[in-house]
What we know:
Layout: H1 2-22, E1 27-45, E2 51-52, E3 59-67, E4 72-89, E5 93-114, E6 117-138, E7 146-147, E8 158-172, E9 175-189, E10 207-222, H2 224-240
Antiparallel strand pairs: 1-3, 1-10, 2-4, 3-4, 4-5, 5-6, 6-7, 6-8, 8-9, 9-10
Amino acid sequence: MHKYICIIMKRIIFSLLILFPSICWAQTLIGVKVGYSPLSAISFKPNLKATPFYGQKPDFGLVIKNFDNNRFGFQGEINFTQRGYNLTIKDTSQLRQVNSYIELPIFMQIHFNLASVYFHVQAGCYAAYLLSAKQGVDTIGTMVLKNYEFNILRDKRFDYGLVGSAGLSREFKWGVIQVDVRVLYGFGDLYKYTFEGMPMFQVMPEQSKAVVQNVSISYLYNISNLGKKKKNKNTIKEIEQ
């Protein structure tokens, strides 16, 4: 199943990379975003009863958005984000791991104009690379996180999966404000199930996939307007001459 999903994702990304420079888009917007992941978790199989990690730091990133008509377009991002999970070990101690990722999602988007406010839905895929991680165990009522040492036999840095979202945007003279709510589901595992000797797991999980909920707000500027303004100025000069 995952093999076919990987093939589909690669084809989508390849198609977008081919189409992106060759199409004359009617609208192109670029901007910045800041977000927050109120809930992230790792889905283990067999179930280890891990509980969600509630975000401690905001996410942030860059956004580019392209439309070739009034309804349909694409959105790409590069984000710095945190995910994690909590796990009860030895019935009393609480383990927490917090992972920092660089993440690249690509969406296909449909939006509708509702009384000067745009409602949009979008779906796509993402790839992410784990930059660093911290881990801690609460045995005395205080959680102290320390740098997590990666082991290439145990840990996987690369993640990928599907993501979907919905949101609202409003265009002003000075730019566009966009609000998004999204859900991310990973197909890559955080740990290699073939590894042995991990003390926090009685049995090494067969699957350890990310599940994340995220909310964000973005500021976008329509750079297509720059070309239109320049064209209008040249037209005015020609008329005056």
